[in-house]
Amino acid sequence: MNSIRLRSLPHLLLALFLTLAAYGQSLAQTVGSAPAVSKEGVAPDATAGATAATATAPAAGGGDAAAIAAGDALFKGNCAQCHAVNDVVVGPALAGITKRRPMSWIIPWVKNSSKVVASGDEYAVKLFNQYGKQQMPSFQLSDQEVTSIVAWVTSQEGKATGPTDNANGNNIAPGEGSKTPGDDAAAGAGSYVNVLLIVLVVVLIVLVVTLVIIANIMKDVLRGRKDLDGRDVEIIEQRFDYSKIYKSTAVRAIVGVVFVLAVLYESVQGAMGVGLQQGYQPTQPIAFSHKLHAGENQINCAYCHTSVYKSKSANIPSANICMNCHSQVKTESPEIKKIYRAIERKQPIQWVRIHNLPDLAYFNHSQHTQVGGIECQTCHGPIQNMEVVYQYSPLTMGWCINCHRETPLNTKGNAYYDNLVKLHDTKNGAVPFTVSSNGGTECSKCHY
Amino acid sequence: MQESPKYWKGIEELENSPEFMKNALTEFADFLPVKESHGASDATVAPRRDFLKLMGFGIAAATLASCETPIRKAIPYLNKPEEVDPGIANFYASTFFIGQDYNSILVKTREGRPIKFEGNPESPITRGGLSARAQAAVLSLYDGGRLQHFAIKKGNEHVKTDRDQVDQEVRAALASTTGKIAIVSPTIISPSTKKVIAEFASRFPSTEHVMYDVNSASGLLQANGGVLPSYDFSKARTIVSVGADFLGTWLSPVEYAQQYITNRKVSSEKREMSRHYQFESALTLTGSNADVRVAVKPSMQGEVVLALYNAIVGGDAASSYNDESKQLAKAVRDLKNARGAALVVAGSNDPAVQTLVAAINQTLGSTAVDTTAPSMIRQGDDARMARLIREMNAGQVGAVIFYNANPAYDHPLAEQVVNGLKKVKTTISLNDRLDETGILCTYAAPDHNFLESWNDYEPKRGSLSLAQPVITPLFATRQAQDTLLTWAGSPTTYYNYLRNQWKGVLGGNFQKAWDKAVHDGVAVGTASPAPVAQVAQPLDVNAAISAIKSAPKPSGIELTIYEKVGIGNGANIYANNPWLQELPDPVSKATWGNYVAVSRKMAVERKWEQGDVVEVSANDKTIQLPVLIQPGQADGAVSIALGYGRTNAGKVANGVGANVLPLASMRNDGILYTNVVNIKETDAKSPIAQTQTHHTIMDRKAVVQEASLADYIKDPKDVTEYETISTPEGPQKPNKVSLWQDYEYKNHHWGMVIDLNSCIGCGSCVVGCQVENNVAVVGKQEVLNRREMHWLRIDRYYSSDAHKEDFETKGKLDTYEAMEHPSDNPKVIFQPMLCQHCNHAPCETVCPVLATTHSSEGLNQMTYNRCVGTRYCANNCPYKVRRFNWFSYYSNEKFETVNGHMFTDLGRMVLNPDVTVRARGVMEKCSFCVQRIQLGKLEAKKQKRRPQDGEIVSACAQSCPTQAIVFGDMRDPNSRISQIMRREDGERAFHVLDTINTQPNITYLTKIRNTESEVRNA
C-alpha cells in the first residue's frame, strides 16, 4: 500500500504543478490561435521594417538644423503618406529632388500641382502621366515650410536605404537604426551561457548514470562475497523507507505551505489578469492583412494611420484612403468589395477596437512617435507579420510605468530638452536621463 | 498704513446668530443627508434585507461584469475631411449675439463637435474677452429643449410635420392674409438678415418688422437720434454711472469691462486710476467695483441726473435729490476736472433722463462718447411693439412671425400678447423651441442654432463680424433666414445671399477677402444702410427736464427690475442653460432663481428673514418670491431680477423663480423697469441657494488685502501687510521657517497671479472652467447642501466701515461691535479662489492612498482613480477648494434635470474628451488645466523648442475679459507672470494665509481703491 501512495504523491504534485502552469499560460494566451507573446511586451529587437523609413534620424549633411527639424515634422505630417525619400511609394522618391528641379518649380508644385500641370509645364505633365494621372493634393504650406521639407529630404538622401532595401518581409534586422551595439553583445553572451548550461546538464546526467552503474556493480560484487556479517548484509540490502517522509510533519507542513502559496499566487495572478486583453485577436469585418500591407508591400504606417505623428489617436483609416490604391488594385477581391459597398451605402466600416485603454488614462500617440521616436512595433509588436492584428502588449499601468522607468528620453536635437539634459548631466550624469527622471511617472502626466 | 477692514461673508455672519455660530464652529455639518432634503431622517438607514439584497446583487454584478469585456467598435470616417483629425482640436471664428451682448468667438471643435468657446483676439470690440453668458452658450446647441422638427398645431398639440407641407400651408396662409403681417424679433444686427426681411416685405407688402428688446434701450436711442453712442471707457478718467450696470449687463459689458480696466490697472510706475461713481438702487456688479457708490432709489435717479445737469450744464429747475453724502458734489467736481475725459452714463429707459445725460456729456466734451460709429446692439422700439400689441388685440394683424422673440413671456404686456394672438389668423414661430410664444403659434419652423448657421453681424457701424456653421445641423431644423427666403419665393440659399451681400462690402479679390473674413471672424466695413430712425423724435432738453419734474413721485416701496449677470434677459438659450442657472450671482452669490433683494433696514422693520416668501404686487399682478437681505440695496426699494419664471423653456429653466416683467410699468409706451409695489408677507419659506455663506474657513486675517490709491501713491511698498513669524533670529518671513523640504523645479514651475484690482467678479472664469473641465451641475438642493462642484469660485467680501484704528478713540469692545455692524452701503471685493497648488500642500500629507501628490512642475495633482474618498484632504485644505463627488452626477436620475448634458448622448457631445468625468466617491479640484499644459508642452516638443509664454494658459486665465488672471511658467524669467511677480514683490503681491506657510503657487495682488484722491486737471 505504502509504495503505491509513495509513488502517487509526487505524481499528484507534478500534475498539480502542471495544471497551474497551464492555467497561467492560458491566462497569458487567449482566444483562438494567438501567437505566444511575452508579458514584457517591449522587445527591443523587434523588426521595424514598416516604419524604419520614418525613424527619427539625426539631421546630417547640409542645411540649417532647425529647418531640417521642422521639415522632418512637416514631411511626416503631410508628405509621408505618398512619398518616401529613397523609394517610390504612391508618388516618386524624393531623393535628389533639388538636383532634378529648382525650388522655384517645387514650391508652386507643392502648393497647387494641378495648376502647374494645367499650365502645360512639360516636366509636370510627364510626371502626372507617369504616376497614373494621380493628382497630388494641394498643400497650404508656406514657401519656408516647403524649403525646410526639401532640406530635410536632402539630409535624408541615401540614408534610409537600409530598411527599404531590406524589404520583402524578411527580418534581417531592418530596425538596426534603433538598436544599440550593446544589444548584439548581450545576445551573444546569452547564447554562450545556454550552450554551457546544456553541456553541464549532459555531463551531470552522464555522471549520475555512471555512478548508479558503478554502485550496482559494486553491490553485485558484495552480494557475491560470503564473508559478510549480518550488519553488512543489512546495509547492502538497505532500502529507503519513503513512508517516513510521508509521515514527517515537517515535510507535510512544507508541502502544505507551498501548495497554499502556489494557489494564492495563481489566484492573485488570475485576478490581476481580469480585464486584461493581451493577445486579444477579434475577427474584423474585413480581412485586412497588415502582413501584406505593412510587411510585404512596405507601406508606411502613417500612410493609413495619418494622424499617428500629430495627434493623440492614430486614426483608423477612412475608406477614401483605401480607395487611393484600391480604386485600381485588386478590385475584384470580395474583401475589397466590402469597402466599395460601405462607400455606396454610406455606412462606415465598423472595425472592432483592439487596443482599449480605460477612459481614465490619457495616451497620446504623437508624444511617443514624433517626440519619443518610438517604433510602432515597440508597443504593437511585429505588426508587419500579423495577418490578423492582436494586442501584443498588456497595456497595463505597470507596463507603461516600467517602460517610462527604463527608457532614456529622446532628447537629441530637441531644444525643449537642452537645458534639462545639461542639468541632469551636471548632477547625475552617470544615470540615464529616463522618462521618469523627467517626471514621466507622475500621476497627472496620464490621469486628468 | 494699510486699512484693515473687517470683512463679513454674509448676513448670517454679521448677525452672529446662535445658529450661525454653531455652524461656524462645526465647519462640516454633523449629518449631511444623503437623501432628498434636510427633512430626511431615519429613512436613510438601510434595512438588513435591503443590505443583503444589494450585496448579493453587487457580487453577482461584479462577477458578471468581470467575465466579459464588451466589444468596442472603432468607426472611421468614410471620407475624412482633410482638416479634421481625431484628437486634434480645430478652431473656427464665429459670432455670438442673441439679443444681449455681442461676442466674437473662436469655437473649439473636437471630432467635429463644438465643445468650447474662446474669445476671438482679432475682434476690435471684444478683443478676446467673453462674457459668462457667451462661455455657456455652447451648450445651447445640445439643448434637449430645442424643437427638433417642423410642426403644426393640431388641437393643443404640435404635431411633427413635413417641412414642405409647412412651407406650402404658410405660403398659402400668407398669400391670403388680409391685414398686417408682422415679423417680431429682438434687435437684429445682421445686415443680411435685415435684407432678407426686406425682401420678404417686398413680397408681402403689408409686412412690418418690429424689434423690441427685453432689456430695452429705446430711451437711449430716442435721446441720441435713433442710434446708440459707442462708449469708450478707456478714455474716461471720471465715470459717473446712474443705474447703468455697464460691467455686468448693460449693452456691451465685455467691451466696456476691457476699456474700463485699462484705467484701473496700477503699478508702481503707473500710480493712477480712473474714478468711478455709481448711483444705483440694487447693488450691481458695476456698483461693487465703483470707487464711490451711492444707493439711490429708482425714482430719484432722474433727479440725480438733473442735479448733475444743473451743476455741469447749468439748469435752473431744482433737483429734489438730497446729496446727503456730498458724493454728488464730488462727482461733479471730478467730472469738471476731467473735462473731455469724463463720462456720464445712465441705465434708465426714460428718454427724458437719457436726453439730459447726452446733454451733460456734450457739455463735458467727452471723447468717450462716439456717435459717428454708433453701436447697433439695441434697436428695439418699445412704442412700436406696444402699438403692435394693440393692433393685434384690435384684430388688425393677419399674420405674425416670431423670430427669436418670446413676448408672451418677456414683454411686460405679455397678457395682452397672449390675448392678441388669439385674434391673429396665422401665427408662426421661428423660435428654436416651443417656448411660451411658440406654443401659442400654429406653425413652428424652428431655426438652426447659431453654431449651425451662416450669418453676419454689424455690432458697430464699420465693424463687421461673421458666423460660420461649425457642425452639420443636428435636427431637422432650417435657418430662419432660409425659411423667410423660401416663403418669399426666393430660390437662393441664405449662404449665397450673404456672400452676395458681402461682395459689395469687401470688394477687390472677393474670394480672398471672403476667406480671410471667414477665417478671422471679423472684417472692417459696413453692410448696413444709413440708420432709419425707427424711434420717435428726440426730446428737447427743456421738455426732458419738465418730464422728469412732472414724473409721478411714488410713495411706497419701489421696485427695480434688473438683469442678472448669468441669466441675462432670460432668453431661451440663457434660461435653459444649467451652467448659467448655477453660476452664482456675483454679488448675492445666489444660484437657481430670483428673489426680492431688500435692504437690511427694511428687513428689520418688516421682520423679514432671508428666505421668507413674500407677495409682490403691482399692475394687478402678483408674484411670490423669497426675500434676500442685500447690503447696499437702496432703502425703501427692492430689486428683482428678470429672466426667471419660465414655463416653456425646457427642463432646466421651467419653474425656477418667478417672472417679474409683468410688474414693470409703461410710460408713453416705453418700458420703465421700475414700479411701485405692494409687498405682503406669507407664511411660506423658500431657502435661497447661495454658494458663499458656508465657506467660513476664511475667517482669518490676510485673506484679502486692499488699500487706497492715496496710500499707494505715497509708497507702493506700504500697501500690503506681510506677516512674519517670530524666531530666535527675530521676525522672519513665514517661508523661512519650514519643517519640510522644498521642491526643486527644473523644467517648469506653473503659477498664477490674480490682480484683485482688475477682477470685476463677472464670473466668466467660473463658467469657462466648468466647460473646460466637465464640472458637474448639482442643482439647487445640492447647492443648499453645500455641495456645489465649481472648481473655481469667486469669493465676494463685503466690508464694514469700522477699523481697528478706532481702538484708541472708541475702545476695543465698541470698535469690535461696530465692526460687526454693516455699513448700509458696503465696499465689495471679489477674490477668485481656486486650488492654490501649494508647494507645502496640507492636502498631500494627509491622503492615505497618495491620490493627491505634487508634480515636478509645481502642480498639486489629483488622481481620481486612486482616490478612495476619505475626504481628509478637503478637511485639511485651508482654502476649501476641494470638491467631493457625492453622487454620480452623470447617471443618477436625481440630477437628470439639472445635469442633463451629462446624461444624454446629445448633451455629452459638449464634454471635453481630454478630461475624465469623475465618478461618485472621489475628490476633485482645480488641476491648473493640466490637459492644456500637457498639450502645450507636447506642441513645443514636436516643434523642438521651449513653449512660449502665453501659449499655455488655463481656461480661467483665457476667459478673463480684464486679464486679471495671468497664468504662466515662473521658471521662465521672461514670462509675463515672472515679470509681474518681480515688479510686485514686496508691493502688492501676497499669498492668501501666508502665515501657515503653504507656499501657494497662486499670488494675489492687493486691490487699490481710488476712494479719496481727487481727479486732477489734466
Question: How would you describe what is shown here?
Answer:
The complex is a heterodimer of chains A (about 450) and B (about 1000). With about 450 residues, chain A is mainly alpha-helical. Among the domains of chain A are: about 100 residues, Cytochrome Bc1 Complex, Chain D, domain 2 (Orthogonal Bundle), CATH 1.10.760.10; about 170 residues, no CATH class. Chain A is about 55% helix and about 0% strand. The radius of gyration of chain A is 32 Å and the shape is elongated. In chain B, β31 and β32 form a beta hairpin. Chain B has about 1000 residues and is of the alpha/beta class. The longest helix of chain B has 20 residues. Classes of the chains: A mainly alpha (about 450), B alpha/beta (about 1000).
Question: What are the key terms here?
Answer:
heterodimer; A: 448 residues; mainly alpha; Cytochrome Bc1 Complex, Chain D, domain 2; 53% helix; elongated; B: 1018 residues; alpha/beta; Alpha-Beta Plaits; N-terminal domain of TfIIb; Rossmann fold; 5 domains; seven-stranded mixed β-sheet; six-stranded mixed β-sheet; 28% helix; globular; Asp_de-COase-like_dom_sf (chain B)
